[in-house]
Specification:
The complex is a heterotrimer of chains A (279), B (277) and C (255). Chain A is mainly alpha-helical and 279 residues long. Chain A has one domain: MetI-like fold (Orthogonal Bundle), CATH 1.10.3720.10. Chain A is built from nine helices and no strands. Chain A is elongated and about 75 Å long. Helices cover 39% and strands 22% of the residues of chain B. Chain B is built from eleven helices and eleven strands. In chain B, strand 1 and strand 2 form a beta hairpin. In chain C, the strands form two sheets. In chain C, strands 6-7-8-3-9-10 form a six-stranded mixed sheet, with helices on both faces. Chain C has a four-stranded antiparallel sheet with strand order 2-1-4-5, with helices on one face. In chain C, strand 4 and strand 5 form a beta hairpin. Classes of the chains: A mainly alpha (279), B alpha/beta (277), C alpha/beta (255). At the B-C interface, helix 8, helix 9 and helix 11 of B face helix 8, helix 9 and helix 11 of C.
C-alpha cells in the first residue's frame, strides 16, 4: 500500500490527452493574445485570404485580419460563456432538483414531467428554436442552451437526492433531530456537488459545441465577434478555396471540447473518495 | 509417483502466489497434502490467502496472479504448467468446487434440471434424458425429498439451504476424488448449516472423496474435519489433527483465533486481552 | 425498576394495498428492557428481528400495539423529544453506509451530540477526542474520512457516534456479522465493557454464540413472534420451544 494516494498513482492516458489538448489551445491563444503583433480587428486588405505563412500562422480572413489573433481573442469569450452556462445549469439543477426531491409528491411529479417533455426534444433543436424565438445574439444563444440543458441537471440532482435520502446516515441524522436544511447542507450537498461538478465539467465541451453550432447557423454571436462558431460560419463561405479559414476555428472547437470531456473523466476519478486506497 | 499405495489427491509444496504490481506475496510458501477420503479444513480470516490457495489447486487463480510451486498436483497430475488435457481431467472429473454464494453459482434463467443435465453432457453423458434421470438420482442422494419438483424449479424458487444442496449434488455428480468447499455455510441460516455440513461429509464418505473445506468458522472445522491448516497473511502457520489444533493450539495466531470465538469463552468475560487495539 | 424500553402487543406490517399482499413482520410482541440489561434478540433472516429493533428505536411506526419509553407511551411527539433521542441510540449493521463518506470522522462521531445537545466548536472537538480514546480509535484519524478506516474501525466510529449523547440504551443491528473473528471479538469486548459500565444494550443477532457471550437476557424470534424469552442462563440451558432447542443445538458446534 502506498501512502500518497493520488500523486503516486500514474495519470491515466485520457487525463494526459485532456491536458495536452487544453495546453495546446491555451498556448496558441496565449501566443495570439500576448505575442502576436496583430489586433483581432486590424483590417489589412493587401493580405486578404492569405494562406498560413510565417507572418500569419493560421492565415487571414476576407478582410486580411489575422485568424490566429481572432481565434485567440475568441477563446476567453467562448470558454467563459460555456463555464457560465454549465454553472447556471448546475445551480438550477441543484436548486430545482433538490427541492423537487424534498417537495410533496405532486410538485415533484409535475416538475419531472416538465423535464421529461424538455428532454424528449433533442437539446440542439430546442436551443435553436428558443434562440430563433429570442433573436440572434450570444446572450440569447446562451439562455437557449441553458434552457435546453438544465433539465438533465435537474433530473440528476433529484435522483441523487432521492438516493441519498434513503442512506442510513441520513436516517440516523434525521432520527437525531436534524432539520431538512441541516440534512441538505451536511449530507446531501457535499455528496451531490461532486457529481454535479463532474457533469458540469464534462458538459463544457458540449456547450462550446452547441454555442458554436448556434453561431454557425447564425443564431448565436454575430460577426465581427470572434466567437469560434461565428468564425467557422464565415469561413464556410470560402471553404473550397481557403480551407484554413473554417478549419482552424473548427479545430479549436474540437480540441477544447475533447479536452474538457476528458477532463470531466479525470475529475470524476479524482473526486471519488471510495476509489482512494486506504492508508 | 513413488510407490505409496494411496497417493494424495492434492499435493502442494512451497506454493507462492503474487499479484502483478503487489509488493508482497498473497500466498507465501504454503505446503499441504490431502489423502484420499480425508476432510481437510483450511481456516483464516479474510485476506489470509485461503481461498486463493484453493483456487490455485484447480488452476482457477486469477489471470493477474503469478503462481509458483515446488509441487502442485491433483491425483498425480502436475498442474504447475498444465496441459489442456490434464486441466480438463482435473476440473471435469477428478475435482470439483462448491462456492460460497449458491445464488450466483447457479444461472438464474435456467431450471436446476437443465443446468445439471448440461453439466453431465459436458462431462460425457450420452443423452439429455439419461442425464436428467441421473440428476434426479443425484438430488435424491442429497436428501432432497421431491427431486422432480426441484429439477423443474428455477434457482430463485429454492431456499438458500436447498440451493446449497443442489450445488453439493452437482459437485458429487462426476464422482470426484476431491471436492473444494469455499465458505459454503456463510450465506445460510444457522439451523440449516449443520444439516448442509452433515450432508457434505456424508456424501464424501459414501463416495470416498476428499474434501478441502475452506472456512472462517472454527467450530464447524473442529467438528467436521480430520485435519486442519490455519492461514495468516498468506502463510500456513499451523497444521495438524483438527482436535489437537482446535483443542490445544500451538501458534499464537491460532490461539488468538480460538480465543476470539464468543461461544468458547466464559460469558461476559473479555475475549481478548485488555491490550488489544 | 421501570424498563427503559418496552413493547406491548407490538405488530409491524408492511405494504400491500390488499390484505393478501400485506406481510406481518412483527406479530404481537411483548418485551421489556430494564436499565443496564444486555438484551439479545436472536432469530434467522426474515424472523422480523430487524423490524422490531427499528420500531423500538422509533425509526418506523408500529402497525398496532404500543411502545413504552421509561414507562410512558412513545407517541410521535415523544419520539421527537430530545429525552428519547438522547437515551436511545441505534447502530446499523453496515457501517459503510451508516457513515457519511464526506463528513470528517470527528464530526460523524459527535453528530448526535451536536444535533440533540447543541454541542459545537471546541467542546464538540473535545468530545470527539474523548470518544476516540474510549473506543481506541487512532486520534490521527479524527480529521480523516470513514472510507479510509478498516471495517472494525468504522464500526467503532459508529459506536462512538451512538455513545456521544451518553445514552441509556444502544440498539445494535447485527453489529459484527460482517467482521472477521478477531475483529468481532474486539468489538464484543468493547460492547461488554460498555454494558459493564452501565450502558444498556439491545443486540440483534443471528449468532447464538455472540448473544450467549454478551447478553444477560435473551428473546428468540421466529416468523415475527417471540417463541422464547428469559434470562440468558435459563434460555440457553433449558430452552422450552422446539425452535429455540434447534437453534441452540446448531450453535453448540464449538462445544
Amino acid at each position: 500500500m502506498t501512502h500518497s494516494l493520488t500523486l503516486a498513482r500514474p495519470l491515466s492516458a485520457s487525463t494526459m490527452i485532456a491536458a495536452a489538448c487544453l495546453l495546446l489551445v491555451t498556448l496558441a491563444c496565449l501566443f495570439g493574445l500576448v505575442w502576436s503583433p496583430f489586433a483581432p480587428d486590424a483590417i489589412d486588405l493587401s493580405q486578404r485570404l492569405s494562406p498560413p505563412t510565417a507572418r500569419h500562422w493560421f492565415g487571414t480572413d476576407e478582410l486580411g485580419r489575422d485568424l490566429l489573433a481572432r481565434i485567440a481573442h475568441g477563446a476567453p469569450l467562448t470558454v467563459a460563456a460555456s463555464v457560465a452556462t454549465v454553472s447556471a445549469c448546475a445551480g438550477l439543477g441543484v436548486f430545482i432538483g433538490g427541492a423537487s426531491a424534498l417537495a410533496p409528491r405532486w410538485v415533484d411529479a409535475s416538475l419531472m414531467r416538465a423535464c421529461d417533455i424538455m428532454l424528449s426534444i433533442p437539446a440542439l433543436v430546442l436551443a435553436m428554436a428558443l434562440a430563433a424565438a429570442l433573436g440572434p445574439g450570444l446572450v440569447n444563444a446562451l439562455v437557449a442552451v441553458i434552457a435546453a440543458r438544465a433539465p438533465a441537471y435537474v433530473r440528476l440532482a433529484r435522483n441523487q437526492t432521492l438516493a441519498l435520502r434513503r442512506e442510513a446516515f441520513v436516517e440516523a441524522s434525521v432520527s437525531n433531530g436534524a432539520s431538512g436544511l441541516y440534512v441538505l447542507r451536511h449530507h446531501i450537498a457535499p455528496n451531490i456537488l461532486p457529481v454535479m461538478l463532474i457533469q458540469a465539467v464534462s458538459d463544457i465541451g458540449g456547450v462550446i459545441l452547441a454555442t458554436a453550432a448556434l453561431g454557425f447557423v447564425g443564431l448565436g454571436a454575430q460577426p465581427p465577434s470572434p466567437e469560434w462558431g461565428a468564425l467557422a460560419a464565415s469561413g464556410r463561405l470560402f471553404f473550397l478555396d481557403c480551407w484554413w479559414y473554417a478549419v482552424f476555428p473548427g479545430f479549436a472547437v474540437v480540441l477544447t471540447t475533447l479536452g474538457f470531456n476528458l477532463l470531466g473523466d479525470a475529475v470524476r476519478d479524482g473526486l471519488d473518495p471510495r476509489r482512494a486506497a486506504r492508508p | 509417483m513413488t510407490g505409496t499405495p494411496t497417493p494424495p489427491v492434492l499435493e502442494i509444496a512451497d506454493l507462492h502466489i503474487r499479484f502483478s504490481g503487489a509488493q508482497a506475496n498473497a500466498v507465501e510458501g504454503v505446503s499441504l497434502s490431502i489423502a484420499p477420503n480425508e476432510v481437510f479444513g483450511l481456516v483464516g480470516e479474510s485476506g489470509s490467502g485461503k481461498s486463493l490457495t484453493a483456487s490455485a489447486a484447480l488452476r482457477l487463480d486469477p489471470p493477474t496472479a503469478q503462481v509458483t510451486a515446488a509441487r502442485l498436483e491433483v491425483c498425480g497430475l502436475d498442474l504447475r504448467a498444465p496441459r489442456a488435457a490434464d486441466l480438463r481431467a482435473v476440473r471435469g472429473g477428478l475435482a470439483s468446487m462448491i462456492f460460497q454464494e449458491p445464488m450466483t453459482a447457479l444461472a438464474p434463467t435456467r431450471t436446476i434440471g437443465a443446468q445439471m443435465a448440461d453439466a453431465a453432457l459436458a462431462h460425457g453423458a450420452r443423452s439429455w434424458r439419461g442425464a436428467l434421470q441421473d440428476a434426479g438420482g443425484d438430488l435424491a442422494n442429497v436428501n432432497i425429498k421431491d427431486p422432480e419438483r426441484v429439477l423443474r424449479s428455477f434457482p430463485h424458487q429454492l431456499s438458500g439451504g436447498m440451493r446449497q444442496r443442489v450445488l453439493i449434488a452437482m459437485a458429487f455428480a462426476g464422482a470426484p476424488r476431491l471436492v473444494i468447499a469455499d465458505e459454503i455455510t456463510t450465506a445460510i441460516d444457522p439451523t440449516t448449516r449443520v444439516a448442509v455440513l452433515d450432508l457434505l461429509t456424508t456424501r464424501a464418505a459414501q463416495t470416498r472423496a476428499a474434501i478441502l473445506f475452506i472456512s472462517h468458522d472454527l467450530g464447524a472445522v473442529a467438528r467436521f474435519c480430520d485435519r486442519v491448516g490455519v492461514m495468516q497473511s498468506g502463510r500456513l502457520v499451523e497444521v495438524g489433527a483438527a482436535r489437537a489444533v482446535m483443542g490445544a493450539p500451538q501458534h499464537p495466531y491460532t490461539q488468538r483465533l480460538k480465543a476470539s470465538l464468543p461461544g468458547a469463552g466464559t460469558p461476559r468475560r473479555p475475549l481478548l486481552g485488555e491490550d488489544t487495539p | 425498576m421501570t424498563p427503559v424500553l418496552a413493547a406491548q402487543n407490538l405488530c409491524v406490517r408492511y405494504g400491500g394495498v390488499s390484505s393478501a399482499q400485506a406481510h406481518t413482520a412483527v406479530n404481537d410482541v411483548t418485551i421489556a428492557i430494564a436499565p443496564g440489561m444486555a438484551f439479545g434478540l436472536i432469530g434467522e433472516s426474515g424472523s422480523g428481528k430487524t423490524s422490531l429493533a427499528r420500531t423500538l428505536a422509533g425509526l418506523q411506526a408500529p402497525s398496532a400495539g404500543r411502545i413504552l419509553f421509561e414507562g410512558n407511551p412513545l407517541t410521535p411527539d415523544a419520539i421527537r423529544a430530545s429525552a428519547f433521542r438522547r437515551s436511545i441510540q441505534f447502530v446499523y449493521q453496515d457501517s459503510a453506509s451508516a457513515l457519511n463518506p464526506r463528513m470528517a470522522n470527528w464530526r460523524c462521531a459527535t453528530e448526535p451530540a451536536h444535533l440533540i445537545d447543541g454541542l459545537t466548536g471546541d467542546a464538540r472537538r473535545a468530545l470527539a477526542e474523548t470518544l476516540f480514546r474510549r473506543l481506541r480509535l487512532p486520534t490521527a484519524a479524527l480529521d480523516g474520512f470513514p472510507h479510509a478506516l478498516s471495517g472494525g474501525q468504522r464500526q467503532r466510529l459508529a459506536l462512538a457516534r451512538a455513545l456521544s449523547t451518553s445514552p441509556r440504551l444502544i440498539i445494535l443491528d447485527e453489529p459484527t456479522s460482517a467482521l472477521d473473528a478477531t475483529i468481532q471479538a474486539a468489538i464484543l469486548d468493547e460492547l461488554l465493557a460498555l454494558n459493564l459500565s452501565g450502558v444498556g444494550l439491545l443486540l440483534i443477532s443471528h449468532d447464538v454464540a455472540v448473544v450467549r457471550h454478551l447478553c444477560t437476557d435473551i428473546a428468540v424470534m421466529k416468523d415475527g413472534e417471540i417463541v422464547e424469552t428469559g434470562t440468558a442462563e435459563a434460555v440457553l440451558a433449558q430452552p422450552q420451544s422446539v425452535y429455540a432447542q434447534e437453534l441452540i443445538a446448531a450453535a453448540m458446534l464449538e462445544g
